[in-house]
Amino acid sequence: MNPFQYVRATKARAAIDARAADANAQFIAGGTNLLDLMKRGVMTPQRLIDINRLPFDRIERQGTGLRIGALALNSTTAEDRQVLERAPLLAQALNAGASAQLRNMATVGGNMLQRTRCPYFYDTALPCNKREPGSGCGALEGINRMHALFGFSDKCIAVHPSDMSVALAALDATVLVSGPKGERRLAFGDLHRLPGDTPERDTNLEPGELITAVEVPDSAFTRHVHYLKVRERASYAFALVSVAAALSLDGTTIKDARLALGGVAHKPWRLLDAEKSLIGKPATEAAFQEAARVAMQGAKAFKHNQYKLKLAPNAIVQALKNAASAA
Amino acid sequence: MENEKPQPAPDCPGHNEARRTFLKQSSLLTALALAPGAVVRAAAAELDEKVAAAFEQVPLKLDVNGVKHKLSVEPRTTLLDLLREQLHLTGTKKGCDYGQCGACTVHVDGKRVNSCLTLAVMQDGRKITTIEGLANGDKLHPMQEAFIKHDGFQCGYCTPGQIMSAVACIREGHANSEGEIKEYMSGNICRCGAYPNIVAAIQEVRSGGQKV
Lengths: 327, 212
What we know:
Chain A is α+β, with helices and mostly antiparallel strands. Helix content of chain A is 28%, strand content 21%. Chain A is globular and about 60 Å long. Chain B has a five-stranded mixed sheet with strand order 3-2-6-4-5, with helices on one face. Chain B folds into two domains: 51-133, Roll (Ubiquitin-like (UB roll)); 142-208, Orthogonal Bundle (DNA polymerase, domain 1). By secondary structure, chain B is an alpha+beta fold. Residues 1-45 of chain B have low confidence and may be disordered. Chains A and B meet through strand 1, helix 1, helix 2, strand 3 and helix 6 of A and helix 1, helix 2, strand 1, strand 5 and helix 5 of B.
């Protein structure tokens, strides 16, 4: 690991100012991804600003939703009574990610900001525009079985690895950010960005901006929900494809629906048209198949991830079936 | 990896290359850390607390297995390296060093964590329990007894991490069925494949009703 200066912040303002003033600084919370990347030389910050002692770890009811502090642990959040009652989809997605040990370390804010697990990003001997702008995308013509189907560019075809973020995208969450210019709110769908010509930027956060909390609005999606994660072993692996599915049913009729995919794009991939196709329909396999068909419009695979073109729609149908039958 | 005492790193091409990069970066950083002392002091005031330059030893207080330690560490020392190399508690193993195998599992303030993926300085003031802190004198912890009884290991390298994780798994209330145990023990890899026996050991301790 490269040597670095370590500072510990006890006030958010000081942390933000210190980060804004130093392009080579990084915030550190759980550290489960940052230290991993630093050990491999993928990230080499010269200063770490430890934000773990900031007062952002509470999960509380606020207005018509839940406000989850950015420093709440993944494990605490997944088992929080209010989260289980009001946003069970989020709890399911959190428990699908990482291991029990990592969930005890990783924070909600850090989970959103984790970097891609693209092997070309992780290997400093290989080209990667995200790690080293201008060096090329090794995955484009290389081993691309884990890569994107939607929203990629010729500069980057990596996918975002977070499960939690897929559920937050489906639940229309809002990210609370504090920065050098004050505070602002970002719709969850606007936090992450598509790679375009600047894949080195994962999010729309400005330098020095610190996520302080995420708000999950109350919704009707408290029962018929399912987070389906397809991976190469039964647990503790990143998604090949994942689906966050939520239904609001009136008898057997779908009143409202939410759908988002993970493992297919540079950001959680919300499926608004597929959601619309479900509304007013009976909750049957035929309706789910049609939603999956709509969802996959515009998908494009590379040499080694063709299988996702079949896996993703099948996963959508299965997730919707599981959601509909959830007790 | 199996050596119990810190060894000089092997002399291989990869190592030399890493060393060169390290020297290149470190000379830069030393300069940075030494020159603008005022900047560092200003930052210290602003950030209320500790500021440690790259190679500075940071004071650190830790309670490890009930023993209070006053230590000093370089900021980049992981909790795992501190335990093994400074405190010589070599029961906690370095497997992958990237949080993928679970061999380094310890408890921090009662929660199981991967000690390879956290900096020692981040744990200032916390209570750490390692595999060495589980037994009561010569009396093994029930989970240690159960691992022996059920042959929950072969080579034994992952065992300290498995046992620390298993104890936490029961304390968390995640050992209510075989399926739940498998899910909540998935962060601990066993290359010998002792999994069925590990699950059996956990089930026995769970159903035995002993205090873990």
